[in-house]
Amino acid sequence: MIYNCGFDTAGQILTHLLPNIDGSSIQAKDLEWMTKGQMMKFDQREFVDSWPFEYTGLADDGYVYFPDQCIDGATKCKVVVFLHGGNQSVARSNERVLKTSGFGDYAPSNNLVVLFP
C-alpha cells in the first residue's frame, strides 16, 4: 500500500502500468495540468449499494479529471483510477490530494482520464 503518493510515485506507477507514458515535459506540482482540462465532482453513492454494509468506504462525492482532448470523444483516452487510503480523502486533505497525487500531472500529455473515488 502506498501511503504518500506524489509526483515521483505516480510516475513510477504509470510507467510500470503503461510503458509508453511520456513524462519528459512534466514539472512536478506546478498545477499547469489543471488548466488543460476539467475537474468534475460527481455523486458516487449511486454506484455502490451499501446493503448489507453500513459503511462502503467511499465518500459521497468522487472527482474525475478530463483533459481537454478527452472530453469530446475525438481522442482515445485511457482511464486511471487513483485508489487511495482513507487519510488521503478529499475531505481530510481539503482537496489537496486531487492536486498533488501526481496522476493529474501526467494526464494531459498522455490522454489519461483520472478518477478519484
Label this structure with key terms.
117 residues, alpha+beta, 20% strand
Walk me through what this model shows.
This protein has helices at residues 7-17, 68-71, 90-93, 96-100, 103-110; strands spanning 37-43, 61-67, 78-81, 112-116. 27% of the residues lie in helices and 20% in strands. With 117 residues, the protein is of the alpha+beta class. The radius of gyration is 14 Å and the shape is globular. It starts with 6 loop residues before the first helix and ends with a strand. It has one domain. The protein has 5 helices and 4 strands, in the order αββαβαααβ.
Structural classification:
alpha+beta
Low-pLDDT runs: none
Query: In what order do the strands lie side by side in the largest sheet?
Result: 1-2-4-3
Sheet with the most strands, sense and barrel status: 4 strands, mixed
Percent strand: 15-25%
User: Which shape, going by the Cα principal axes?
Assistant: globular
Q: Quick summary of this structure?
A:
This protein has 117 residues and is an alpha+beta fold. The chain has one domain (7-116). It contains 5 helices and 4 strands.
